[in-house]
Specification:
Elements: H1 11-16, H2 20-51, H3 53-64, H4 71-87, E1 95-97, H5 99-108, E2 112-115, E3 118-123, E4 128-134, H6 139-143, E5 150-154, E6 157-158, H7 164-172, E7 181-188, E8 191-198, E9 200-203, E10 207-211, E11 216-221, H8 228-241, E12 246-250, H9 259-267, E13 273-279, E14 285-290, E15 299-303, H10 310-321, E16 324-328, E17 336-344, E18 347-357, E19 373-374, H11 379-382, H12 394-408
Parallel strand pairs: 11-12, 12-15, 15-16, 16-19
Antiparallel strand pairs: 1-18, 2-9, 3-4, 4-5, 5-6, 5-7, 7-8, 10-11, 13-14, 13-18, 17-18
Amino acid sequence: LTYHSNISYSFREMRKLFTKKHLVVTAIVTFFATAAVAVTGTYFYLRFSQYDVVAQARNLIREHYVDQLSEEQVDKMNDYAISAMVASLEDPYSYYFDATTFDSYEESTKEEYVGVGITVSYNAEQNQMVVISPTDGSPAQKAGILPGDVVTQVDDMTVTQDSYNDVVDHIRGEGAAAGTSVKIHVLRDGEEKVFDVTRDVIPVDTVSYKMLDENLGYIRISEFKHGTVDEFSEGLESIQASGAKGLIIDLRNNPGGYADSVLQMTDMLLPKGTIAYLEDNKGKKQYFYSDADHLALPMAILVNEGTASASELMAGSTQAYGAAKIIGKKTYGKAVGQTPYMLTKDTAIYLTNARYYTPKGECIDKKGIMPDIEVDLPDELKSKLTTLEPSQDDQLRTAVETLYDEIQK
């Protein structure tokens, strides 16, 4: 769940916030403070120096190391220090992007890229790289990689906390062309499996829709990008124009995406009220609301172990209102949001800075959403979700039967 906060100001903008009244008060305070500076100045200097130990350590090294450091070495030292600070949080969703990894991050947000099409996270508690979900129609999905698989090795690289970023870069194949391959070792239910995956161009088409029959519409959302809102709106209009009496929304293997997108889309489904709210480390809450306009159709939402983050927000909010039946398997369990904070023009910290809660005040982080109707699929079918016939897909079939029961009522 990625969102952007607008709380950063430049020094110039901050100066504009002060009125003449502020300046008068500041002048009076400064007069009295000047007398105290002679006595307490040294204390505050030492206190500040001891507090900012990272800057102190960097300056000591620059001043006293036996060799003169180049600017490149100083930049590298900063990268290592910031990366270690973020890593110490042991949060699988917070990252430090140096100049190289920032380029990779930007590349991954484009409308298409070369790769294997897989979303992973690092579980620091268990020291594991875990697959959240493969992208629809991607090489990873076609090869048979599933949500929940634990990646242990990629080619000759063993996955550890220290090697995680390098392994991710290697999977992406920095600068690699379509047609190159990578060997991915995973653990699934204690059994090792090895997949040869060929990189390809991964298009980011996030919404597909159709009528399953004359009564039921079907919308598949693979991820929440900025353009997903318009695609979803078009899908809703299309199925309504076709006379749909019920709607199935498929969020299986959807790893999440942008908060603003999922909030706008969920607003289209819910009546007036609270969609969700965020809470930061100071207990400050930010509420998001839906208006009175909503889709007045019976709905079922399909979920599984790869339904995560923003897609869990949509499923959890509609479930809380009783607006949709949730069908499938328990979801991944990610209810925290991240914001990218720029440090320089080409470095940033992508930081978890809030938890989100359902309209009922429940945080499903590390818990997941329990479906109203639990239905599983065999492993051999989970990697073929987008190509299954309805007769093969027990989760979809259950959704169809559930909606027909609702329609008949």
